[in-house]
Amino acid sequence: MTVTLPDQPAKTPAGQLDDAGKPPWRDRINWARLTPYLLIVPAVLMELLVHVIPMVVGIFISFIKLTQVYITNWSSAPWAGLDNYGVALRFGNSQGKALLQSFGLSLAFAVLCVGISFLFGMATSLVLQRKFRGRGLLRTLFLIPYALPAYAGIITWKFMFQRDNGLINELLTNDLHLTGDRPFWLIGGNAFVAVLVVSIWQQWPFAFLMTMAGMQSIPDDLYEAAAIDGASVWQQIRYITLGIMTPINSVLLLLLFLWTFREFNTPFVLFGAVPPKSADLLTVHIYNSSFITWNFGFGSAMSVLLMLFLIVVSALWALWNRRVNRRYA
Amino acid sequence: MKIRTPRSTVRGLAVTASAVALLALAACSGSSDNGAASSSAGSVSGSGGSGAGATITYWASNQGSSLDNDKKVLQPEIDKFTQQTGIKVNLEVVPWSDLTNNTLSAAVSGQGPDVLNIGNTNAATFQSTGAFYPFDDAALQQFGGKQHWVDSAFATAGVAGQPVTSLPLYSQVYALYYNKKMFAAAGLQPPKTWAELVSAAQKLTDASKGVYGVAIPGGTVNVSMHYSFIFGSQNGGAPFDAKGQPTFTSDGMVEGVQQYVDLMGKDKVVNPSLAQDSDNSQAPAAFAQGKAAMYMTQTSGINVLRQNGMDPDAYGIVPIPAPADGTKISSFVAGTNISVFKNTKNLDASLQFVKFMTSDAEQAILNKSYTTIPPVAGLKASFDAAPEQLSVWSDILNNYSKPLPLVSSVQAFQANVGGAVVRLIAQAATGNQVDSDTVKSALSDAQQKMPTS
Amino acid sequence: MREQTSFRIFRWVVLVPAVLFTVVPLYVMVSTAVKPLGDVLGEFRWVPKTITLQPFVDIWSTVPLAHYFVNSLVVTTSATALSVVIAIFASYAISRYRFRGKGAFSGVVLATQMFPGVLFLLPLFLIFVNIDKSLGFTLLYQTRLGLIATYLTFTLPFSIWMLASYLNGIPRDLDESARVDGASAMGALFRIILPSARPGIIAVAVYSFMTAWGEILFASQMTNSASRTLSVGLQSYSTEANVYWNQVMAASLVVSVPIVVGFMFLQRYLVAGLTAGAVK
């Protein structure tokens, strides 16, 4: 959506700004020039307070050895140089290995969660594109998980994933007789499945919402013309719907990816501060090393690395998006 | 001029921005000297009514069966204190899950309560932050000196050779609780060695009925660390060497952790579901409901079990047995200490409150209510229990306990080793074999995560 | 238009799992909330043996739920209002003016909007406690005000981003003709832009409100018993003795229903606001 924003030169309002040289406007020029700055001052101040300064502080912390010994007077913490980064990136030792594993895990989690949510949302939008009885009801129903406060949904799933009194095991062992032994969902390897399922449950309605809105903006006569030409429903979807949807999809995919990659709520509520290895997502991993083991310098170094990675992802996406936009514009 | 206007605006913005940034940074690195200076002023104070009229804030830890229960126990005593001294106390009971974190925040910010409780395992950690008021020998005199406390308890107050920053309030030890009825029905005697414990547990386990030999809080990080220390010590291991360097991978530690994890893995005497018990709640419930015949917990377990409907006459208590050729260790000296926050503006009042809380009279009352052992010399455990149980508790404290190493990285030790043991239990519960190589590599990972000092 | 059989099958293949996937957890939430604790702790039963409304009574006394509710409401509403107001001005500048530093400003907004909160948690924690330390009293750390500020880390950039694209979609002729007629910049903003940007503004508000209402990371680190919000407070239904699953579910329901209902009323604005930039 906003990608178009920086590329699109804003027109000058009422023509007075760029024609600054014209004498009749002279008196108002300074004031007019100042207006946009006055408008963004509150935003700039808040951005400084909540983002820019904390980011600078965070980067600074990543270069010092900030453990509990220095926490009361952190300006006296010794300079660590690149030590924290060294520990994080030395993949041979356990800290680096854990970070690498956690990174890979988060990547796999994000790709799976975004992919499945997107396909699921898209498919649902497609089948709900045409009017039929109960369509409105279904649409409302599908949006409920998204509207629900995050923790309410996650806690419900946590209850469902309980080994002895949860619904999932009741379903698998007693109702469907798929396994004899009640599996664990919140510890061991299955924890990854659990956190993935819960995240998809929360994310896919958003994909549904966005794709549905995109499809509504496609004029009906396009389909009618195609139908007259003898195109099947599948061909219409392939050539009209998906084609027109490409720009909206690319924004949607980026948003979903960024949201999923920084997901904290789901693993934190499901597993607490010490998640099983299979669900040790990056954000929880960083939280853990900062606030549970009190190694703040190291936690900050990992945060900075994560930030760099997200910048790279977004830059790549921007390049790709520009190409897409050029093709479909 | 008109061209320069926007530029100067930008410059102005930039200046403003950097000024704000500098201001904030200055505020951040701001010194904590003022607090330190004011607190050293009144280090030794008479116990007169000098603090009268002051109001202090006290963060009490959650010792009872609920936060409400704590308030019911503490409030009457605090009223007594206010009556004696005129000092008002604003009581806040903080759950353990928040206490460490809140204390850390208070240490960083200098904004905290006047007096607070800490878990004694963290005594050295908080001592190293310098956030607490140091009780040097002179300051200790007002409480009756070191000799006011039992030696083993006072050893938990802080690193030797430095002024301690916390004073023992409630002591606890670990013991093995066993269900009398279940043992009698199976014709078993309480175990004296680890092998006996395992064989009794196997006899008592009947998975088809959902009954198991032992209940463990398999997902609870701090208890898992405690167990690793106890069982490691039984096998001659120690988590830290004399210089305070971690030695998690020493043979004794590996064997000790293995011994514990085997309950879930090889011996199969634990309900696998308990691997999910991340707040030590399901294990006592299972024991109280007769779904498990044994349970290893601290003295305060008496309270928790009562809350779950199990009275002290239903179980017996013995020291946690060690392997036949091992060292007979059942516990470390666990417990809760009381500290004064260095930045307090009411030092006199705070010290008077500490004196009150550690006095013989209050110690007797509070330790009875909390079913804990008084750490002050000359007082015996007096809580509601059979006399022979009380003597077992003091026997464990005096003969089967080994102090937990007082190193400043205990918090990291708890997080890393506790976390590793929790994951090993999870592996065992999900049917994976946990052999000594698995244990060793998990502990080695934990060791590498320790901050280097 | 004739539907092909294959498409009709496809519809069922998609809708049946989607409905089940959505409804089952909701059913679990509702049915567990009306079970007595004893029934909840045993094996899961699809149909409750006994139905009781007691959990809905107990939730208010087990934890100070009403207190948490008020905190959540204050924090969330303030953060939302603040970020919407700030975003209106900023996005108006971005959308309608050309000025030096615009690229840098929108760049920062765009960049910060994608960073995870955990990046800011520790620095904010240190900055807050140190500001409090130099002030000598608790202004920001573990207070509602501090929590509001941290919530701006995610509500503000998204609001500016979304509103700017929405304003871009509003024809410039509208405000330009007003300006020609002599309206000031503020006049044009308040009389022309704001009324036509209403869906965009509501979208921003809805998004901010919902994200802040469900936020957990900052809430768990930056609150204490006085400022605790629902997202953390709801987790205190598990005690030493028991996890009160029925009360957890009842409380979840109570705090969710107003949000869900409100969302359903306003969701069409969210759709309009979110898609404005991308579709146009």
TrEMBL record, chain A:
Coiled-coil stretches noted in the UniProt entry, renumbered to this chain: none
Q: Where is this region: Disordered?
A: 1-21
Membrane spanning stretches: 37-64, 103-128, 140-160, 184-201, 239-261, 296-320
Alphabetized, the UniProt keywords read: Cell membrane, Membrane, Transmembrane, Transmembrane helix, Transport
Q: Where can this protein be found?
A: Cell membrane
Q: Is the keyword GTP-binding assigned to this protein? A: no
Q: In the UniProt record, which is one GO cellular component term?
A: plasma membrane
Stated membrane topology is: Multi-pass membrane protein
Name the Gene Ontology biological process terms.
Answer: transmembrane transport
InterPro entries per the UniProt record, alphabetical: ABC_transporter_permease, MetI-like, MetI-like_sf
The primary location reported for this protein is membrane
Q: Which residues form the ABC transmembrane type-1 domain?
A: 103-317
Which CDD domains is this protein grouped with?
A: TM_PBP2 (cd06261)
**What family does the database annotate?**
Belongs to the binding-protein-dependent transport system permease family.
What is the recorded name of this protein?
ABC transporter permease
Q: What is the lineage of its organism?
A: Bacteria, Bacillati, Actinomycetota, Actinomycetes, Nakamurellales
TrEMBL record, chain C:
Q: Name one GO cellular component term.
A: plasma membrane
Where found in the cell? Cell membrane
Cite a single GO BP annotation. transmembrane transport
Answer yes or no on keyword Transport: yes
How this chain sits in the membrane, per its record, is: Multi-pass membrane protein
Q: Which residues cross the membrane?
A: 12-30, 68-92, 104-128, 148-167, 188-210, 244-266
- Does the record bear Ligase in its keywords? no
Alphabetized, the UniProt keywords read: Cell membrane, Membrane, Transmembrane, Transmembrane helix, Transport
A Pfam family of this chain = BPD_transp_1
List, for all copies, the residue spans of the domain called ABC transmembrane type-1.
69-266
For this protein, the record's CDD domains field holds: TM_PBP2
What InterPro entries would the database entry show?
BP-dep_ABC_trans_perm, MetI-like, MetI-like_sf
UniProt record similarity statement: Belongs to the binding-protein-dependent transport system permease family.
Protein name according to UniProt: ABC transporter permease
Name the source organism: Nakamurella endophytica
Species classification: Bacteria, Bacillati, Actinomycetota, Actinomycetes, Nakamurellales
